[in-house]
Amino acid sequence: MTPALPSAWSQAGNDLLLCVRLTPGSAKEAIGGGWTDAQGARWLSARVRAVPEKGKANSALIALLAKRLDWPRSAILLESGDTNRLKRLRITGGGGDACARLVALIETWVELT
Fold it and tell me: Going by DSSP bridges, is the β-strand pair 42-47/15-23 parallel, antiparallel, or unpaired?
């Protein structure tokens, strides 16, 4: 039996930490699919039209996540990966039932391949 891959998300108190592999300058915006790095960490794949200059791609990623999660943009923070395609984001205020809803959505996106 193959061991389960680590998830692209984790919980930190009432917040969710989300690992995203971003492809900027794409023909269309999309979220879905997973990617595993050399260390075995799992990342959610996302594509945005914005180019990777002056934070445009990062802003587009946050806007896309906010729209798809139906979550306030101000509650999605870029924690690391400002100039890297591998990003770690914090989704704040997702305690209780809200957290379960967010996790269910994120899990369906990661499973898309």
Answer: parallel
103: tokens are 């996790």
**50, part of any domain:** yes
Residues of the domain holding 63: 9-111
Provide the residue-wise pLDDT of the chain in tens; the chain has 113 residues.
333 446 888 888 888 999 999 999 999 999 998 888 898 888 999 999 999 999 999 999 999 999 999 999 999 999 999 999 999 999 998 666 777 888 888 888 877 65
Helix (H, G, I), strand (E, B) or coil at 91: strand
For residue 86, the cross-strand partners are: 21
- For residue 93, CA distances in Å to 12, 39, 71, 89, 109 come to 11, 30, 10, 13, 21
* Distance from C-alpha of 97 to C-alpha of 23, rounded to nearest angstrom: 31
Is residue 103 within 8 A of residue 95, CB to CB? The reply is no
Q: What is the CATH number of the domain that holds 87?
A: 3.30.1200.10
Distance of CA 77 to the CA centre of its chain: 11
| Structural domain contains residue 18 | yes
